[in-house]
Amino acid sequence: MTTRVLIVDDQALVRAGFRMIIDAEDDMRVVGEAVDGADAVELARRQSPDVVLMDIRMPNMDGIEATRRLTAGGNGARVIILTTYDLDEYVFAALGAGASGFLLKDVPPEDLVRGIRVTALGEALLAPSVTRKLIEQFAASRPATARTLEGLTEREVEVLTLLARGMSNAEIAGKLFVGESTVKTHVGHILEKLHLRDRVQAVIAAYEAGLVKPGR
Prior knowledge:
alpha/beta; Rossmann fold; 6 strands; globular
């Protein structure tokens, strides 16, 4: 299966660099390039990408607003925010807008490729310099909600708890003594039952429901 990627950046050299890296992979294809957020929203509507590489600071419409419009509009694309700025406010804004990942522009090419693959599969993606503490802080900063986990089985609640603690599918499988494919199935059911887009949203939902607490 080929992952369709949309590149969004106002700098032509940056777009060209990303395209070169992505087009070198057999399982990826660049389906478009956008110069600003408004262009990105329109191109995403026409090209239906799987993953959008989204810059933050752009003219006309920034990457945060474009991400918000894409996710609110029901577009199935998952957004990776790419920026040169390693600042909490951008991470918070990106998570709040519905981004599935956050990477700095200076990541090695192999990490960018891995990030696209991970995000396309619905995994949570954060740059090494952006710790899990940021997700905890983000969740803690949100007002308390009445989110319920009703409908989840006991095993699914257990999987969600471990997921929210930062464990990968493989780690969860080892902890529960089940196969990794079984964990993937559980995660899929959790996302479907709670009407969530990806693991990032699932982690935030776990905090909102009080299943896990920041700092624990």
